[in-house]
Amino acid sequence: MPSTPRLTNLYCKLIFEGEEQFSAVIIEATIPPVVTVEYPEPGTCRVTLRALLNMHPGPLYVQDGIIREVTVEPGEAVVSFTISLDAAVRATLVVTEGVPSRVVLRFSRRPLQEFYRDKLIVLDPGHGGSDGGWRGPVNLRERDMAWKTARALAQVLEGLKARVIWTRAEQENPSWEERLLKVTTDTFCFISIHEHGAGDTGLRGTAVLYNPACRGNEELAAKVLERIVARVKIPSRGVMADGELARLGEIPGLKLEPVVITDWVDEGLLRNPYFHQKVALATAVGVKQYFQRGK
Amino acid sequence: MYYKIPIRTHIITENEDIVALTRKYSEGIAAPGDIICLAESVVAISQGRAVLPETVRPGRLARFLSRFPGKDGSLATPPAMQLAIEEVGTARILAGCAAAAVGRVFKKKGLFYIVAGRQLALIDDIAGTMHPYERHIVLGPKNPGRLVRAIKKATGAEAVIADVNDKGCVDILGITKKGYRQAVIEALKDNPFGNEDEQTPIVILKRRKTKS
Fold first, then answer.
1. Which one of A161, A185, A206, B123 has the lowest number of neighbouring Cβ atoms within 10 Å?
2. Who's near A46: CB < 8 A, 6+ residues apart?
3. CB–CB contacts below 8 A, A to B
4. Cα B50 from chain centroid?
5. Which residues have a Cβ under 8 Å from the Cβ of A174 and sit 6 or more positions away?
6. What are the residues of chain A with a beta carbon less than 8 Å away from any beta carbon of chain B?
7. Which of B5, B36, B203 best tests the A interface by mutation, with the highest count of A CBs <10 A?
8. Please, which residues have CB within 8 angstroms of residue A286's CB and are 6 or more apart in sequence?
9. Boundary of a domain, candidates B137, B158, B174
């Protein structure tokens, strides 16, 4: 192995340790490099490694609610990584031996957990039972995909200490009135999950519908849409007011339409289990970013 | 036996020189005796084998046959089936279908690809490849054997082109030294190329030094 470390890989992942969650930036090298970590300003972490760069130095867009993005600046036998953060958290640093050696920076996800702790969120997977909703050109049904995304979202929210209530069980199809009965005065947010369908099989992309009776919900929908589109790299169909959600009154309400299931490509995306996880995480991050704006 | 070193690359696109890229990304790391592994889909993309479905006109046969394969696999859409027909010809596709029908009776899977051609198993249907190629159907790479020899010549290391999935299946399409085949399969089983946000289509298998 060459005596100068060569950087080969950069990625981020979530680490779960019991009740604790961490957002980790991991830099791989051929041998352990000399590392310095500094915080030039709150919300920015700069990591400098004495190493040569073999990997592509393009930015890494993370957007996991703690880490926004990582940019790479190659220098002369030195490489700097700037980590933009959504919260003023500091990392614990571990450098592992082995091939590849790993420089692991772990940022606590407590700010995200503190935001969601004990907040009541009503999840409403659309359709259900004998009502399959829209059908994709190959074989997927809106009912089943909405359920999958809702399950992923519940997992994310519960991991962040939120309280989650479902409007239906997997095989049920309650009416809209019955679904709204699950909403109580202490509901923080109502999130309904559907897929869009259209006769035009070329139409694709994500839309987020909002409760027009609740002030600021259009901006909330726009923030969630922005996060989903950035995370799953899919065209945007925009935000729209939804008459059904208006019945929530002052309670924030969203209807997610992650894809147009009648499009070949969008239906294909739904087969990927990571897609549902990404939509779920992006939604949780978007909601938090909206309610914490300016703080 | 080998350390695995995945290399993060840029998004490799059509008409890029995959041999030059491999040499650039493995410089200073891969040495004779090491093995440079490349993900087959990226090699195929660099060869211009990513096809937009709207440029394909599925015939009646493609539309009919696309109803039968497993819906989570390849060839579930008419354009992908049409490309499969164009790859190997109608006769081989129909022979493959007949074999698959026999296989269904005797509960034996995979006969379609054995008869119609293993290159069809390499077709990634719509949304089967990561962004920005999720709108494309990606065919298998051309001339993998010739390509691995060119990579060996350019880098001095052995070279492999492989199709790997998250279920632990490793298909070696081209390899410069056949004796390394089993070791490569073992090393790639956990899919170090990744199938998601990982952007590591090159993995260097670095030979571990044995302690004397």
1. A185
2. A37, A38, A39, A40, A80, A81, A82, A83
3. 78
4. 12
5. A128, A167, A168
6. 1-2, 6, 8-11, 28, 30, 52, 54-56, 58, 98-100, 137-139, 233, 264-269, 271-272, 274
7. B5
8. A220, A223, A224, A225, A226, A227, A228
9. B137
Strand partners, A190: A122, A253
Give the domain-ending residue among B137, B155, B188.
B137
* The CATH number of the domain covering residues in A114-291: 3.40.630.40
Length of chain B as a residue count: 212
| Residues B196 and A276 sit within 8 Å (Cβ to Cβ) | no
Q: Cα dist. B59→B53, B64, B66, B83, B115 in Å? A: 13, 9, 11, 10, 22
ipTM of the complex: 0.90
What b/e sequence results for A203-225 when a residue is b if at least 16 CB atoms lie within 10 Å of its CB, and e otherwise? ebbbbbbbbebbeebbebbbbbb
Per-residue model confidence (pLDDT) at position B208: 85
Alpha-carbon torsion (A97, A75, B192, B212), positive or negative: negative
User: Looking at residue B177, which CATH number applies to its domain?
Assistant: 3.30.1330.100
What residue type is assigned to position B168 of the chain? G
Checking if the pLDDT of B134 tops 60, the result is yes
pLDDT digits (tens, 9 = 90+) for A156-183: 999 999 999 999 999 999 999 999 999 9
Q: Which residue has the tokens 């109502």?
A: A190
CB atoms within 10 A of CB A52: 21
Rounded to whole angstroms, how far apart are CA atoms B171 and B163? 5
- Residue A35: which pLDDT band, with cuts at 50, 70 and 90? very high
Shared-domain flag, residues B148 and B184: yes
CATH number of A6-108: 2.60.40.3500
Cis peptide before B132 (omega within 30 of 0): yes
Q: Angle at Cα A268 formed by Cα A264 and Cα A271, nearest 5°?
A: 155
CB atoms within 10 A of CB B126: 26
Q: Which domain holds residue B179?
A: 2-49+140-207
Angle between helices A142-159 and A273-291 (to 10 degrees): 50
Q: Positive or negative, the Cα torsion across B47, B51, B57, B59?
A: positive
What's the domain count of chain B?
A: 2
Task: Calculate how close chain B gets to A84, using CA atoms only, in Å.
Answer: 19
Residue B34 confidence (pLDDT) above 90 = yes
Q: Is B11 exposed, middle or buried (0-12, 13-18, 19+ CB in 10 A)?
A: middle
Residue B212 covered by a domain: no
Residue B126 lies in a domain: yes
Contacts of residue A9 in chain B, CB cutoff 8 Å?
5-8, 200
Residues B132 and B145 in one domain: no
